[in-house]
Amino acid sequence: MIEIKNLTKDYQSGATVVKALRGITVDIDSGEFTAIAGPSGSGKTTMLNIIGCIDSLDSGTVKIGDQEVSTMAKVEKSYFRRENLGFIFQSYNLIPVLTAYENVAFPLNLLGLSEKEIKPRVMQILKEVGLEGMENRIPSKLSGGQQQRVSIARALVKNPKLVLADEPTANLDSNTGREILDLMLKMNEKHNTTFIFSTHDQMVMECAKRLLYLHDGAIIRDERRE
Ligand SMILES: Nc1ncnc2c1ncn2[C@@H]1O[C@H](COP(=O)(O)OP(=O)(O)O)[C@@H](O)[C@H]1O
Ligand SMILES: [Mg+2]
Questions:
Q1: Is the beta carbon of 16 within 6 A of some atom in ligand 1?
Q2: Closest by alpha carbon to 107, among 159, 167, 69?
Q3: Is 104 inside a domain boundary?
Q4: Ligand 1 within 6 A of 11 CB?
Q5: Structural domain tally of the chain?
Q6: Which residue among 72, 131, 163, 190 is least packed, with the fewest CB closer than 10 Å?
Q7: Domain extent at residue 192
Q8: Atom 18 of ligand 1, residue of closest alpha carbon
Q9: Could you give the CA distance from residue 192 to residue 32 in angstroms, rounded to a whole number?
Q10: In a domain, 138, yes or no
Q11: Could you tell me the sign of the dihedral formed by the alpha carbons of 5, 30, 171, 126, in that order?
């Protein structure tokens, strides 16, 4: 499903060049539950942002399904993101003035669906993530774990091919982090959604079915486990 070949990315930082990715080559199949592990600065966010069509690449190719990301124009990338990708962030990135329901409905509004089509889908996914009865709360009236559940529901509500999560448990205590990982795994199995998430947390790595270890912008290990 995802084919990455010789991917490189440099950042200019003042007078010095930071080699954030130095030739990443990897294939990820549909339905995989893959963690990108590695210390801070190893290139995890850069890799996720390039796969997620948020950041541009310098050389190499990134193919998602039959779409070649590296040749897409900015506007094509934004359509592609809207239709095919879901995102989960470390700091949830919910809209503070919208309720849980409205935050989850937001991506469907962008796709132009009617309220009649939207409502059952939003109610169903909020139930699946364990937030039944909390639809009308705004984010500040929810715990960190509950806010991350809203963001998982928001990422999944449009049935994306691929969900990208950058350190989704970094702001949560370890028990809550574990629950969030279990929920992502349940969604991966139930909807066969492909997940790629980054982490530097040992507990989170242990939940992955495949582990890609990044070090200084290169994959140094690729482990599969069942
Ligand atoms: N916008 C940027 N400008 C300059 N350097 C950057 C930028 N973003 C990331 N970097 C550098 O690229 C490297 C990889 O960063 P990043 O992908 O954020 O790693 P990680 O997510 O694993 O912590 C680091 O050395 C970081 O300092
Ligand atoms: Mg990062």
A1: no
A2: 159
A3: no
A4: yes
A5: 1
A6: 190
A7: 2-93+143-224
A8: 45
A9: 8
A10: no
A11: positive
Q: Which atom of ligand 1 is nearest to the CA of 49?
A: 17
Nearest to 28 by CA among 48, 53, 56: 48
Does ligand 1 come within 6 angstroms of the Cβ of 41? yes
Nearest to 25, CA basis, from 63, 79, 55: 63
pTM of the model: 0.94
CA of 207 to the centre of ligand 2 (A): 19
Is 127 within a domain?
no
Ligand nearest to the CA of 212: 1
Supply φ then ψ for residue 25, to 5 degrees. Answer: -130, 120
Give tens-digit pLDDT for 174-218: 999 999 999 999 999 999 999 999 998 888 999 999 999 999 999
Distance 123 CA to ligand 2 centre (A): 32
- Ligand 1 close to Cβ of residue 49 (< 6 A): no
Does residue 109 sit within a domain?
A: no
Q: Atom 1, ligand 1: which residue's CA is nearest? A: 11
Interval 100-136: pLDDT, tens: 999 999 999 999 999 999 999 999 999 999 999 999 9
